[in-house]
Amino acid sequence: MSIETQITEMAQAGKRASRRVAALDTAEKNQILEAIADGLERSTAEIIEANAKDLAAAEENGLSSAMIDRLTLDDGRVKAIADAVRQIVKLDDPVGAVIDEFTGAQGIEIRKVRSPIGVIGIIFESRPNVTVDAAVLCLKSGNATILRGGREAIHSNTALAKVINESGCAAGLPENAIQLIPFTDRAAVPALCQADESVDLIIPRGGRGLIEAVISCSRVPVIKHLDGICHVYVAASADPEMAKSIALNAKVQRPGVCNAMETLLVDRGSADQLPGIAAALHAAGVELRVDPEAADAIGDAAPTVAATEDDWHTEYLDLVLSVKVVDGVDAAIDHINHYGSGHSDGIVSGDAGEVKLFLAGVDSSTVYHNASTRFTDGEMFGFGAEIGISTDKLHARGPMALPELTTYKYEVHGTGQVRG
Amino acid sequence: MSIETQITEMAQAGKRASRRVAALDTAEKNQILEAIADGLERSTAEIIEANAKDLAAAEENGLSSAMIDRLTLDDGRVKAIADAVRQIVKLDDPVGAVIDEFTGAQGIEIRKVRSPIGVIGIIFESRPNVTVDAAVLCLKSGNATILRGGREAIHSNTALAKVINESGCAAGLPENAIQLIPFTDRAAVPALCQADESVDLIIPRGGRGLIEAVISCSRVPVIKHLDGICHVYVAASADPEMAKSIALNAKVQRPGVCNAMETLLVDRGSADQLPGIAAALHAAGVELRVDPEAADAIGDAAPTVAATEDDWHTEYLDLVLSVKVVDGVDAAIDHINHYGSGHSDGIVSGDAGEVKLFLAGVDSSTVYHNASTRFTDGEMFGFGAEIGISTDKLHARGPMALPELTTYKYEVHGTGQVRG
């Protein structure tokens, strides 16, 4: 059987299963989630044994220590995965929530109601915890999933999917509601992305290569996270201590994540704040790549390197920062909309009019006034859990939690109305 | 310059313009809309003259009389297009509306605010009124548009776009906010669908061939209307007069539209209602394609033809109806989810439990209880105007009005919070 045929059959099985998942009530879904969490803990040894095979292969293939760390499961990490499943139990079930209610022509009563999307394909790289996270978030929101993990984690993922299905199905999880693609052939990705008869949404989680492989071939709608080229703009009216504190936090608190700042923009009118900010960043180990005006303003306060055009486009994910002096809020907005990635961008300012312009003008998922960009996160927003952060604008933007894994339908109640 | 380069440049110009459109306030947008409406009326002669060229070509190319009718503009139709623009003035501006407001970690104040999508590509077939409708709906929702009409209407569309831009720009419409692709080369469609650096959404409006051409190549998210294979299910508890009235209305009131019924499902327990319904449909000129059990139930009440498997999949858009007897609400739901198109499906029933099952179980944009499927329409829902009806599940489902032409962003207000 060809890869395409196998994937098509999985997709069709997923679609049939999705009807049964959609029909589960909240208590039934929570019972399944509890059973999956218990099953994961009970099967820790089995999961770690499978993980060891992936780790041995990773060593053999010379994977970086960072990648090996991401791949590694131990008692504590399996327990954390199980606990994360139990967290999902506590979250509100989005399915059935009434979003809006109104009366249409001839008195028909219309209710806009949240409903499951159907079948969601999750394509991800090496972290095996995503296998469980993604599956249970989709389950709680009433969807079936087809999971495609990285080849480096195939043994771990297979073991996790087996435990999810064995413990879940014993507690009422419909068969094929959570499917893992059991082979690592590359052709599985385009096959899944073209199964638009059965698959309703693809969420790719990974680097640019993976995202490109998905969007270049997908007939199924895709919600993606591309880059996090985040900016902080220090306006002339910014409180200097606040500006320094936010810039420092946004860059160094965790430089390897998508909501970390990559470019600092400083208004010409607050260029005198730059030496202090630059010195603090330098002291925290940050390399500064600056435009000529920023270099002048920083002077001897910290060493700098001349920025190239590429720097403004770059997501460093490291202790490196581009710094530029701009002429006012409009120039800051233009820079961000041109070079940014639509993720998270902030202004530090004490001027309400300028803040309003910035928040409306910057075309990003999350725009900040006097707070660090590092807050773009489902947990920080109080969503309890997130499946990712969308840098797209359609359907879901910013942190994606359970409601973003649903669609809606209109339920119309009549008393025999016909159209005249 | 190649087609691809021309389209890329239009897309980039559209993106730049979209920032300026997004910054217009409601009064400014309404003033532009009034100017466009006035301009269209003032230029009626010029528009009709351009339309005459399209009509002459259409006659020469032997287009059907239905297609020629759709293409034709006269004084009354131009007036109707201008009046439709004035209707948009009256609608609420969705931009800036606060969808949700909550407090996140460390007291950050988060507001989820509607904002424009950016650049919307509209690809449509021969009706020239779509040129104006689509452009002004996108404008009111703060978006720039790139319009690609059918080759049959190129002269009409060019004249309309010229009037929109001349009258609009004089009243403050940003340059390139509304662009019509000025040539009919087929390569323009894939070029537009691949310009994902600048174009945020593609809405194709037309037949299956057009939709397929778009989804097979698009890197840009697409919201589409595929088929309208709508069902009415008559349950055992249905009121017979209501069932007959709804079936008749859903089929014959306007058979050529997407929300007309194509398949009637009747519960075995109400098969005795079939002769009356069938006779009424036959009297209205409807050809009945039936399964064996429906044939038996109808008997001599009306002539019937045996349905083939294809019939259950067919959107007739004509006075033809498939009829099938099913075993209860679960069988009805299964049939609809298998053969339907996710558009509009209804149940006629007096049993609340059964209604609940049907409304939750049928995976369609709009599900009806005791009302005709013909109500799926932006106007009937009270939306004032619609850009189309989505049979997709992502972002927008069912009638798409102004709010569905927006996205959202999170505006976060802090007092210097940083992440710990």
Describe this structure in words.
- The structure is a homodimer.
- Chain A has about 425 residues and is an alpha/beta fold.
- Chain A folds into 2 domains: about 5-225 and about 395-415, Aldehyde Dehydrogenase, Chain A, domain 1; about 230-375, 3-Layer(aba) Sandwich (Aldehyde Dehydrogenase, Chain A, domain 2), CATH 3.40.309.
- Chain A has 15 helices and 16 strands.
- In chain A, strands 10-9-11-8-7-12-13 form a 7-stranded parallel beta sheet, with helices on both faces.
- In chain A, strand 3, helix 6 and strand 4 (about 145-150) form a beta-alpha-beta unit.
- In chain A, helix 2 (about 25-40) packs antiparallel against helix 5 and helix 14 runs parallel beside helix 15 (about 350-360).
- Chain A is globular and about 65 Å long.
- The model of chain A has no long low-confidence stretch (mean pLDDT about 95).
Keywords:
about 425 residues; alpha/beta; Aldehyde Dehydrogenase, Chain A, domain 1; seven-stranded parallel sheet; about 20% strand
